Amino acid sequence: MAKTLRTSGDYTIKTGTGASGSNTVTFDSKTTRVSGDLVVDGSSTTLNTTTLTIEDPIIRLAKNNTNTVDTDSGFLVERGLANNAAFYWNEGDSVFKAVTTTSDGTGTSITDTALANIRAAEPSATSDVATKNYVDTEITGSAGFSLKVAGDDSAQVTIASGNTLQFTGASGIATAATEPDTITISLGQNLTDINSVETGGSSNGDLILRANGTGNVVVDDTLTFSGAASTPSATAVTKLYNKTAGGGGTGLFFINSNISSGTEGELISKKKATALAIALG
């Protein structure tokens, strides 16, 4: 026979001293249904059920966290004899972590004993988590991993997985490796076996040879001037260039804006100078 207990105000069932006591109220029925909201004010809630079904699509954890305490929050799985497993937000590291742990779920922190694997499907979108199989496939491909380094002679050297790629200097070139990911190449002594030096930067850029301090740029051999297509513009520095020989008999000309108002002049040969001296008496 169904019974209804109705009251016009609040209704309290209290055993002994209530929440501060040790007495228990037991509902012994197949189903206990609460039609309104259920608020549990206590230190713990234990569900001894075989199946837990929750309609709420979003479960809120650490409800009263005010961020004044470093509070970890997540799910912990009790595993019996082995360390427990947890997937949780680590507040100190600001990351989600999957771990095994000796923590039992009490308190506000998870103590990691080891990181745990997370298994996921193969990624299909650019923002999906990558699986190990996906990364291995992308790196190795059907032909297998093969990183090759080639020199100027086009000879290829295979760098096997796990080996070190070393940049070795030679003929006065020194190399040094520093973090993060930097290779410094410096010239420690004289260069040898160099057939040409060219500017490879901006178009029509100057190639500058400059000695250190008060040293000089020394040409210890024959200096050859190629024929100039036209007379260069005069500046405050002296420019030497080769053109078709004129009255000086050398074909080596110079120009400087501070000399003869920038008019080019030809260096005179010994033969021409001797003939000129005889002619002038």
Would you mind describing this structure in some detail?
With 281 residues, this protein is mostly beta strands. The protein has a domain at 239-280. It has helices at 132-140, 270-280, and strands spanning 73-77, 84-90, 95-101, 112-115, 147-150, 156-159, 173-178, 182-187, 239-242, 252-255, 265-266. The strands form four sheets. Strands 1-2-3-4 form a four-stranded antiparallel β-sheet, with no helix packed on it. A three-stranded antiparallel β-sheet has the order 9-10-11, with no helix packed on it. Strands 5-6 form a two-stranded antiparallel ribbon. It is rod-shaped, with a radius of gyration of 44 Å.
Task: Quickly list its features.
281 residues; mainly beta; 4-stranded antiparallel β-sheet; 3-stranded antiparallel β-sheet; 11 strands; rod-shaped
Question: What is this structure's SSE topology?
Answer:
Layout: E1 73-77, E2 84-90, E3 95-101, E4 112-115, H1 132-140, E5 147-150, E6 156-159, E7 173-178, E8 182-187, E9 239-242, E10 252-255, E11 265-266, H2 270-280
Antiparallel strand pairs: 1-2, 2-3, 3-4, 5-6, 7-8, 9-10, 10-11
